[in-house]
Each structure stands twice: as structure tokens, then as C-alpha cells.
Design brief:
Largest sheet: 4 strands, antiparallel
Structural class: alpha+beta
Number of domains: 3
């Protein structure tokens, strides 16, 4: 414990005039002269939506694009993907757009153009299955279609469902492989669980 942690100091809350005692360290870190109760009120007064399910979606979206320490930064901010200024600066703007553009619990925010930014023109709310099909194609993919590629002597499709990878080979064209893949998804009722690779 540093000497700053142990030295206590009194200050008067600028909102409610209550005298509060804290450490000098806390005062330097918080950089505010509000007591704990008033600080919470000011925080929630901003938009009052701190505990809405969309709030964590908004924070995670920004973290992926701006925080180099985020585990997914390389796939987002590291590739130049940004959050538009309107959403970056305002949760209510993102919240309002979401409510008017199909958001429901269980859906995820998806960028239509996988190389584009998070902005109203490039985002939509979709199921995880649809979002999985909108992933960037792997380097080994030669067809331009997620989950379908040419391998050695024929076309094939690959699906991951319930943490199990399913591969089918031997198709003469990518259209044949795609049709077989789609038929398999429908027949096996995998619409909500698949991940296209």
C-alpha cells in the first residue's frame, strides 16, 4: 500500500454538499468532487439505459474497434474497422437505431459488408446462424461463397453445427456443392446452429 492509499482527506460533494472522506489516491483516480451516490445519479441520468441489454453490445462493439488490448481487436480495429462517430459518442443514438431496425433479444449486430464500419447504413440485426454465414472467407476458399470451396479434385462444402464439423466432397461444380449444402441444412433443421467455414 502506498502512502497515498493511507492518507485520507475530506471534501464536500459539489452536488449535495455532504462531507465525504476518502483517500488522496481515490480523489486523483476519480477526478471528481462528487460523493458516490451523486456520481451514480449523474451516470444514470445521462441516458438511464445502463442496464439495457443493448448497452453491453454497444460497449463490446466499441472495445473491439478501439482497444488494442481487446482479444478481438486484430479482427476489427486492427483491420481498420471503426464505429461511426454518431454511435461512438452516444449510446442513445445506437439504442434508438436498434429499436427501429429489428432488434430483439437473442439477435446480434451484423455488418452487411464484412470489411465496412459499424454504422446505420452497414448494420442489421440477425440471428447467430445468419451472422456466421457473413464471416470473412478463409484464404483457402476459392469459390467466393462461405462454406463452399474446391479441394484437390472436386468441390466440397463444410458446415460446423453443435461443435461438430461436417464435410461433404465430390461435387462437380460450386453450385452443386452449395445446393447440396443448403439442402442438408434444411433437411437437418440446422438453420439456427450452423457456422459456415
Amino acid at each position: 500500500m502506498s502512502h497515498l492509499d493511507s492518507k485520507r482527506r475530506e471534501y464536500t460533494c459539489s452536488a449535495c454538499s455532504k462531507v465525504v472522506q476518502t483517500t488522496i489516491y481515490n480523489m486523483r483516480i476519480k477526478k471528481t468532487n462528487l460523493c458516490k451516490e451523486c456520481a451514480v445519479k449523474v451516470c444514470t441520468k445521462t441516458h438511464g439505459l445502463r442496464y439495457h441489454p443493448l448497452y453491453s453490445t454497444w460497449l463490446n462493439m466499441k472495445q473491439r474497434c478501439t482497444n488494442p488490448n481487446n482479444s478481438h481487436y486484430n479482427y476489427y480495429g486492427g483491420r481498420g474497422i471503426q464505429v461511426c462517430k454518431k454511435w461512438q459518442d452516444s449510446f442513445p443514438a445506437f439504442h434508438n437505431w436498434s429499436l427501429h431496425n429489428g432488434w430483439q433479444k437473442g439477435l446480434t449486430v451484423d455488418r452487411i459488408d464484412n470489411d465496412g464500419n459499424y454504422c446505420p447504413e452497414n448494420c442489421r440485426w440477425v440471428s447467430r446462424a445468419v451472422q456466421a454465414q457473413n464471416r470473412r472467407r478463409q484464404k483457402s476458399n476459392t469459390s467466393g461463397i462461405n462454406g463452399v470451396r474446391f479441394y484437390k479434385t472436386s468441390w466440397m462444402y463444410t458446415i460446423t453445427a453443435y461443435n461438430k464439423r461436417i464435410k461433404k466432397r465430390g461435387f462437380s461444380s460450386k453450385e452443386e456443392a452449395l445446393n447440396a449444402r443448403n439442402a442438408f441444412i434444411i433437411k437437418s433443421n440446422l438453420n439456427h446452429t450452423i457456422q459456415a467455414l
